[in-house]
Design a protein that fits this description.
Blueprint lengths: L2 E6 L2 E3 L2 E3 L2 E6 L2 E7 L6 E2 L4 E4 L1 E6 L1 E2 L2 E2 L5 H12 L3 E8 L4 H17 L7 E2 L1 E8 L31 E6 L6 H10 L3 E4 L6 H10 L1 E4 L15 H8 L3 E5 L7 H11 L4 E4 L11 E5 L2 E6 L2 E3 L12 H10 L4 H8 L1 H7 L15 E4 L5 E6 L2 E2 L2
Parallel strand pairs: 1-6, 8-11, 11-12, 11-13, 13-14, 14-15, 15-16, 16-17, 17-18
Antiparallel strand pairs: 1-4, 2-3, 4-5, 7-22, 9-10, 19-20, 20-21, 22-23, 23-24
Length: 377
């Protein structure tokens, strides 16, 4: 990888946005951030240079479904994600057989051993979505593969040899609170989702260690003036949440309202991307049924939205159209999701971090990308 210098108009650091700077890279990692030196280096297009994005909820892309993927397929997804500015991601499993989990976790372990020097988004862990969900709020998930939250249930989920572990749980299922305590004590990040839990159950889940909500507003009870609902609890309380900013899962005005009510520092952007992402309109076989893709809309045979076909870069552009500053959008796309899962050094432009840079124009559009110190756009 060698050494390189990238001159930037403005840079989003952990301390905030700073003026014209040079970001130096050595062996793929940031070695210095200093006042701009126009005598050397490559000028990186963009009104603001931000960290590479982190997608903690991604079911696949370019024809690759995480539940069916081998290591080569996951690397191809990582290559596609990197081309849009995503630097790190968590392959996300929908409920399936234990044999599927074991095979995919083995493939993820293989990728994490191979990916280091490749110009791809780096896999940082695994996300099990909805294995312990409420059948009444299953959305596009398959309830026949849900597991009971019985004692020792957490130990049944295959774990990586290295990397982070995230799972989404409905607290109101039998044994749900005890399961959350078990998962949190075992080092899992536990999110609340696919749920219609009451306020008391949600409070108990938060105390037990579930401090985040999955794809806010979707597959959870909404807000009513006489019933707080899961969404109201999420807005009013201390839990963070992630949200799908594609204009289909959440109305754009509601998206803006939720982010402004919660604050940019407490919201993460996710893609909830599925295998057809990047492949255009059509009808695709996915998770045992047909999923139609028309524009940004997905729908399965049951009439449910079945994930999205956007990238986190698309989400950044969308929230900027809602009136948010590109630097704030980038925080929601990079630092915040990394912080949710405890991914050290991800989503931050600081010395020692991998040199993953994204240049955004004033509208939040990606205009330049550096992956591991190599400029790919």
């Amino acid at each position: 990888m060698g050494e390189s210098v990238f001159n930037c108009e403005r840079v989003l650091t952990p301390a905030g946005v700073i003026g014209s700077s040079s970001v130096s890279s050595a062996d793929g990692r940031i070695s210095a951030i200093s006042p701009v030196d126009l005598s050397a280096g490559d000028w990186l297009p963009g009104d603001v240079i931000v960290p590479g994005f982190a997608d903690i909820h991604d079911h696949g892309a370019v024809g690759v479904d995480v539940n069916l993927a081998d290591a080569d397929g996951l690397i191809e997804v990582g290559r596609f994600l990197a081309s849009s500015g995503v630097a790190a991601w968590m392959p996300t499993l929908v409920p399936d057989t234990l044999e599927t989990y074991e095979r995919v976790v083995e493939a993820i372990d293989e990728v994490m051993g191979r990916q280091g020097d490749l110009p791809v988004a780096q896999v940082i862990g695994v996300h099990y979505e909805g294995v312990f969900a409420n059948e009444a709020m299953c959305g596009a998930l398959r309830p026949q593969y849900f597991l009971p939250a019985e004692p020792g249930a957490a130990a049944k989920l295959p774990r990586l040899r290295r990397g982070l572990h995230l799972t989404t749980v409905a607290p109101e299922i039998d044994g749900g609170i005890e399961l959350i305590s078990e998962l949190a004590a075992s080092g899992w990040t536990v999110a609340i989702g696919h749920t219609k839990a009451t306020r008391d159950k949600l409070d108990a889940a938060f105390t037990a260690g579930a401090r985040h909500l999955t794809h806010f507003f979707n597959a959870m009870t909404g807000i009513h003036h006489r019933d707080l609902g899961v969404a109201g609890w999420g807005l009013a309380g201390d839990a963070t949440f992630d949200i799908i900013a594609d204009g289909m899962h959440v109305d754009l005005k509601m998206l803006e309202l939720a982010i402004r009510a919660k604050g940019c520092e407490r919201v993460s952007l996710i893609s909830d991307s599925i295998a057809p992402t990047g492949s255009g309109d059509g009808d695709y076989r996915l998770w045992g049924e047909t999923v139609s893709v028309r524009g940004k809309t997905t729908k399965n045979d049951r009439g449910s939205i079945a994930g999205s076909v956007i990238t986190v870069a698309d989400a950044v552009e969308t929230v900027c159209r809602c009136g948010f500053d590109p630097a704030d959008a980038a925080r929601m796309a990079a630092f915040n999701p990394a912080e949710v899962v405890g991914a050290a050094g991800i989503g931050r432009l600081e010395i020692g971090s991998r040199t993953d840079l994204v240049g955004l124009d004033r509208n939040g559009k990606v205009v330049s990308i550096v992956v591991g110190g190599e400029r790919i756009k």
